[in-house]
Amino acid sequence: MKRELELFTTLYTVLVILSTASLCLLGEKRVDLYVSLNILAYYVSYALVRPGVSGVVVRALNAFLLALFLIIVVFRVYEVLVG
Amino acid sequence: MISRLVILGINVLVGSLLLATYGALVGESGLVGVAASLAVLGGVLVAYGGAAPETPQSILSYTRTLVYTTTSTIEDLDLLDSNICVVRKRDALLVVLSKAPCPGDVDPGIGFASGSPYLAIPVDTAWFRGRELEIEESGASEDLETALWSLLVDELGLCKSLRVELEGGVYRVRLISPARHMVEFSRFPVDPYVLFTLPALAEVTKSAAIRLVDKRHSLEEVVIVAKVERVEEGA
User: Fold this and answer.
1) What is the pTM of this model?
2) Which residues on A lie below 8 Å from B37 (Cβ)?
């Protein structure tokens, strides 16, 4: 496996484990918080270690995760404004 | 595609699905959150495992440049039907194409040794460095297989898997499901599968010289048969 990809997957997995375990230990119940922190971990890992893998699938994944993150944020903002 | 990463991702996805089902059944939304997070992780692993190229671009560029530049030289030297062997010269490895079985007194480039012109291509041993390629003196084929797998499958992406058989000092390396971009170069006199496999074999077995005995290509596999040789000194 390419070293950059190896480093990227390792960093991303470690960040996901840390964030998910922290939220779980804090007793967090909101599903969207878990997902949004995971997506943040993905983009942080991607920015720090460019995995050097491109293609339609990766571009689609990036777009999907960004869209999902935006939906979660917009939904939360909407909730605050309405509530 | 990196199948190990895809399989890992699928396993994480299945695990997250089971966890989400359990979390939903017991009404624990925290567990569903953990499962959702794991599902994203699994999806990312599957996507990257599937999108990763078989052979790194740098290897393809190196191979392309090498085969295009050496082909006319090999034709001019009348070495199309030559013997191919790898010779260790101090710390470097040279892939030598010559009519002589395995000339030892060679330098990188073109020359004349053992009564025949030769073309010696230095192999960048940077790919070997930092790898645990040391094997037992007995050269058990399992150890050899693991060491070659690390280099030829994991690092260079030449094929999806490989098998090594050792019979009376003759190594038979079967490169299964070769990368299709690399197979295209097999029609050239300097076959990349030979170019990478023989030096790797020489490095792993710590041989002074290894000669190509036979090679066979098919869509399913590339078979390279090589033998440890004594080096012919002097011309």
Assistant:
1) 0.63
2) 16, 19-20, 34-35, 37-38
